[in-house]
Structures are given as C-alpha cells and as structure tokens.
C-alpha cells in the first residue's frame, strides 16, 4: 500500500492542475460567446459561402441553395452582393467577376481562399442550426476552440520545465497557472483583437504558437500537426517546419549540433515534420484539383512589383498596423531582458533563437507583401503581422519556462502594456489613424512617413487607394495642415490643398516615398502676400533700399522698378514667424541677364531665374518674420548712351509664399 502512495501523490496534482486550467479556459470561452454578437469581418463573404456549402452539400462550389441560405443569414444591405454572386454563378462568361470568387475547372464558381477554416467552422455552424443558436457564431466558436488546444500545449511546455527549476517542474498546479498566464498573454498579443473575426487569423496564430510549444518541449507529433494546421490557411507558415529542429536545438544550450541533427532524424520528430507537411499540402492539392493551380488566390490577387522594403518595414514598425503595435512589451522584454547573468553559450543560443524568429517573421511576411489588399480589413495590427508575431511570443514563454521564479513586477508591466495596446487597437479601423500614429503625425510629422497607401486610406477614410492617384491627401486640424501627401505628377499641390485664392504657409519640409511627396507641417492655407513696387512705401511689408531706379507706371497698370547697379536691396517684414516659407520676384530681365543670385539675411540661397517664376526658400523660415534681401545681378549694363542706369531686372511684384 505504501508503495502506491508516491505515485498517487505525483498524479493527483497533475490532474487537478490540468482540470483547473481547462475549466478556466472553457468558462472564459462561454463568457465570450455569451456576450458576443455574430461579427462579419474580413473576407466573410468567401468564408461564409464555403461554410454554408460544406454544411449543406459537403462541397465548396456556389449553388443556388447556398445563396438562398446566405440571404437568410445576412442583413438586407448585403443582399446586393449576393445578387451579383448569383448572376456570376449562372453566367460567369458574360457577367462581371465578383471579387473573391473564380470559376473552377468544373465550370462552377468557387471562393478563392483555401477552405480549411471554413470546413472547421462548418461543424459548429451545423450544430448551431440544430440547436437554434445564431449560425454565424460558428466562426467565433471555431476560433475559441483553439484556446483549450493552446492551453494544453502550454501546460506541456511548463510542466516539462528543466531540472534547474525543480520547484516548478514538480508543481503541476503552478505549471497550470503559468500555462493560463501564457494563454492570457496570447490574447493580449493580438488575440483579443481577432477572436471575434470571421477569418482564420486567430486559428492560425493559436495553432502556430501551440505547435511551437509542443514541438520544442518534446511532443513533435502534436507540434508538427498544429503547425501544419496553421499552414492550411496561411501557407507561408509551412516554412516553420524547416525551422523547428533548428529552433529546438537553439533552446537547448547543452545539446551539440551533431546531437541536434540526430534528434531531428529520430522517428517521432521526423514523423511530426512529415505530418505537418502533409496537412499543409492538402489545400494546395485541393486548389490543383479545383483550379488547376497550387493557389488561385496567389495567381489572381498578387503582384510581385508591389513587394517593397517600405511595405516590409510597415508590416513590422508602422504605427497603425505594424507588428510592434501588437507586441510592444514582448519585443522590449526579449531585447532588453534575459541576458545578464546567463552563461555565454546560452546567451549565444538565445541570440541565435531570436535571429531565427526574426527570419521566420520576415519569411512569413514576404508573400503578404505581394497581395493587393494586404492592409485591408485589419483590427488594429494587420492580419499578417498578428500571426507572424507568434514566434516572438513563444520565445518569451520559453525563457519564462526556465525561470524558477518569475519576475512578477516586470511581467505585470508587460501585461499592462500589452493590455493597453489591445485597448488602443479596438478604437480604430483599417481606414483610420491609430492614436499613436495621430500623436506622432501632429507633434513630430517629420519622423513618420508611412507607406503612401496607408496614409492615404487612413486620412481619407476610404479603402480605395490607387498608385497613380492625382488626389492630395491631407491630415489637418482646423486650418492647420499637419501632413499632406501628393503624387509628383500633381501640377499644383498647393492649389489643390488651399484652392485658387490661397497658398501654403509654414515650414513645408518635403520628403519623398518613391513617386509620392510628403509635405510636413504644421502649415496652413493663407491668402498670399503680393506687393507691387508702387505699394512698397504704402505699408510696412516691403520697402526698397539701394540699387533701384525710380518707379515707372503706365496709366491703369501696376508700377515697376528697374534695378540699378550690381546689387539691389529690399526689406520685407511680416507679423508672425513661420507665416511664409518662400519668396518670389516677378518681372523681366534686361538683355544679357538670365539668373540672379539671391541672398536673404546674409545667407546665399543660390541663383534663380526670376523671370521664369522661380522662388527662393526663406532660411530658418519657422522663426523668421523679417528679411533683408540682396539681389546680385548677373550682367547689369546701360540701355544707351543717354541713360546712365545699370539695368538688369525689372521688378513688377514681390510674392511671399
């Protein structure tokens, strides 16, 4: 009897910890579902059609009965889309193509997305139909069904903690608590934003994180299967299967490279990788069968020329949609914590693991950069950036796995910052500026120049950006323009910004992003200040100094003055610093003169063709309200023996811009 008691004492806490964890997760799921209305987000039309088709006839092709069933589920304002889909189904040759759908080799219309997520949602869809629950909640149910799976994976991760953390390894209740904390962290790294979506982002993220946790903690079959499941809807995740053995080796500093290779070639790890690859191949084979192509969506909805370094940077660091908006505290903790007091070999392995996770995230992102609507329909952080962040979340959890005592104060700050990030992510849509982006653009506009399509769509509130648009996009606050964006082909951006009667006033610093130009503020639209020489002495703005001839004025026409000598001087004063950024001198040259050197407040601004309308920038315009101007003429000379003046430029107007 006494020989059995140690076994009993070891097993009961494990069961109790796992059961408590599962109970807590299930109660959380029920609470979320009970308070959630069915949400139609992302590419819901395609996913809903495949779900309805799978639940009704076990296929994915669009049928008349499927459209009729969708009419009963969707609000009336969306029935017009169903009418177009029905017409396209009946005559795909002579009917305009419906986005998201394409004819298959069988002549029937199919959704272009991989079907795995819709087939998964078809199970709760059918169940909810039978029980009278709103069938559209099937997507939230499918998403949340991944939480128990993730909880079990994290429980396995923490229950198998190394011997150095013996107190944790033996206490499975504590392991369950830590696994629960891991589930909460997952929700605070984008899960809270996407759990209610009718799209596969949540499932892919949870399956990827669970797969990483299981494989690297000694359950390679389950790990490979979960990574394969994640890749069934987002195929670039399949790259993870090649990285898993390397990542597992990096996380075990005491294992040599040779031993790591041998461990990978053992039957179970190898079978796990093959199983993941087989699952990931199913939707590809399905596409080959239905469309004759491995991925029809990659064929018709992507373009390689859309891939750019700017897009890649945006996916990670943009203040509206970048990955950094989903995991700010996780990223900071990975970079700044966990390095001191760690043996050199382990530090090197940690650095290598971090670099591998960065490489994985970039590899995930590359296919997304070619998608036309890559940044459409996001919930805070963009969809691709959300699930691409999971390797970093896993890496932080792995570091915590090896800690006998968690840094609770530091982790409290991490959880608080992540919660704040999720709260901010719920306050704006994919066509609105985030609070962070708005703050930076209004206070430090020179520091933030997002991809043109991101700025254009979020300040206009429309998801319709065209690369060659002739529109001027403006972020303004009352009369002040904080930032503006226009294509270099726009002939007169100032006129489009301010109208025909006004011009821009302010610093007006411009920065280019390809063919697009950013105008940094603050600037404002004001009535331009223009003065002809006959008004120089009538007001305080412009007065003529030395180097000018007498005023010449024909009846009914503005007066003008010829320059006289090598240098002509003007004094300009205006009330408010920063009101004007440039100054122009309208007039005509005397024979032999083509350009004029302009010196403003002692600063040589260079030579300008004043007759052609070229304007000179005002140095330190933001703090300047008075100008001492010298016009150094190119070749002044006398018009004839009876005229002793040395003429070069006839000034008709001074214009402050």
Automatic annotation (TrEMBL):
It comes from Pseudoduganella rivuli. Keywords: Membrane, Transmembrane, Transmembrane helix. The chain crosses the membrane at residues 12-34, 145-168, 175-195, 237-257, 269-286, 319-339, 351-372, 384-401, 408-431. This is Uncharacterized protein. The lineage of its organism: Bacteria, Pseudomonadati, Pseudomonadota, Betaproteobacteria, Burkholderiales.
């Amino acid at each position: 009897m006494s020989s059995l008691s140690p076994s009993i004492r070891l097993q009961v806490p494990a069961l109790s910890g796992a059961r408590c964890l599962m109970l807590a997760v299930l109660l959380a799921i029920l609470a979320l579902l009970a308070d959630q209305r069915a949400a139609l987000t992302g590419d819901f039309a395609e996913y809903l059609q495949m779900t309805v088709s799978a639940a009704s006839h076990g296929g994915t092709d669009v049928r008349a009965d499927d459209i009729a069933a969708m009419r009963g589920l969707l609000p009336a304002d969306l029935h017009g889309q169903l009418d177009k889909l029905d017409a396209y189904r009946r005559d795909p040759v002579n009917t305009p193509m419906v986005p998201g759908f394409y004819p298959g080799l069988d002549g029937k219309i199919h959704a272009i997305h991989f079907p795995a997520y819709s087939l998964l949602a078809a199970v709760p869809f059918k169940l909810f139909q039978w029980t009278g629950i709103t069938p559209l909640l099937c997507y939230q149910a499918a998403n949340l069904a991944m939480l128990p799976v993730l909880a079990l994976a994290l429980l396995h991760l923490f229950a198998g903690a190394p011997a150095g953390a013996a107190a944790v390894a033996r206490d499975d209740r504590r392991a369950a608590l830590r696994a629960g904390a891991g589930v909460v962290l997952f929700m605070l790294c984008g899960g809270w934003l996407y759990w209610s979506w009718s799209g596969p982002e949540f499932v892919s993220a949870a399956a990827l994180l669970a797969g990483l946790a299981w494989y690297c903690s000694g359950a390679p079959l389950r790990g490979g299967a979960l990574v394969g499941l994640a890749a069934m809807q987002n195929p670039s995740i399949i790259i993870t299967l090649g990285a898993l053995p390397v990542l597992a080796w990096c996380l075990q500093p005491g294992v040599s490279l040779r031993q790591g290779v041998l461990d990978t070639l053992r039957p179970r790890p190898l079978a796990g990788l093959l199983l993941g690859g087989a699952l990931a191949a199913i939707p590809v084979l399905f596409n080959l069968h239905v469309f004759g192509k491995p991925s029809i969506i990659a064929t018709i909805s992507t373009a390689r020329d859309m891939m750019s370094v700017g897009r890649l940077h945006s996916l990670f660091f943009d203040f509206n949609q970048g990955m950094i908006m989903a995991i700010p505290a996780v990223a900071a903790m990975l970079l700044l914590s966990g390095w001191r007091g760690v043996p050199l070999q382990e530090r090197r392995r940690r650095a290598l693991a971090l670099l591998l996770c960065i490489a994985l995230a970039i590899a995930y992102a590359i296919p997304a950069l070619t998608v036309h609507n890559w940044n459409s329909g996001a919930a805070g952080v963009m969809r691709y950036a959300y699930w691409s962040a999971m390797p970093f979340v896993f890496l932080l959890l792995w570091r915590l796995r090896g800690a006998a005592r968690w840094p609770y104060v530091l982790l409290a700050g991490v959880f608080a910052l992540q919660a704040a990030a999720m709260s901010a992510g719920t306050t704006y849509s994919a066509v609105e500026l985030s609070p962070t982006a708005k703050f930076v653009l209004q206070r430090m506009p020179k520091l933030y120049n997002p991809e043109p399509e991101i700025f254009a769509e979020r300040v206009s509130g429309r998801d319709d950006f065209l690369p060659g648009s002739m529109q001027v996009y403006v972020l303004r606050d009352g009369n002040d323009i904080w930032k503006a964006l226009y294509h270099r082909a726009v002939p007169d951006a100032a006129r489009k910004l301010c109208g025909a009667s006004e011009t821009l006033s302010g610093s007006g610093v411009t920065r280019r992003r390809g063919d697009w130009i950013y105008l940094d503020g603050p600037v404002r639209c004001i009535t331009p200040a223009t003065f002809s020489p006959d008004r120089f002495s009538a007001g305080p703005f412009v007065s003529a100094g030395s180097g000018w001839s007498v005023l010449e004025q024909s009846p009914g026409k503005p007066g003008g003055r010829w320059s006289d000598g090598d240098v002509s001087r003007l004094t300009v004063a205006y009330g408010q610093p920063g009101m004007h950024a440039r100054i122009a001198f309208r007039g005509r040259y005397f024979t032999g003169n083509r350009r004029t050197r302009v010196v403003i407040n002692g600063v040589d601004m260079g030579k300008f063709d004043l007759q052609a309308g070229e304007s000179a920038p005002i140095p330190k315009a933001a703090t300047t309200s008075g100008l001492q101007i010298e016009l150094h003429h190119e070749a002044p000379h006398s018009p004839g023996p009876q005229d002793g003046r040395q003429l070069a430029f006839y000034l008709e107007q001074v214009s402050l811009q």
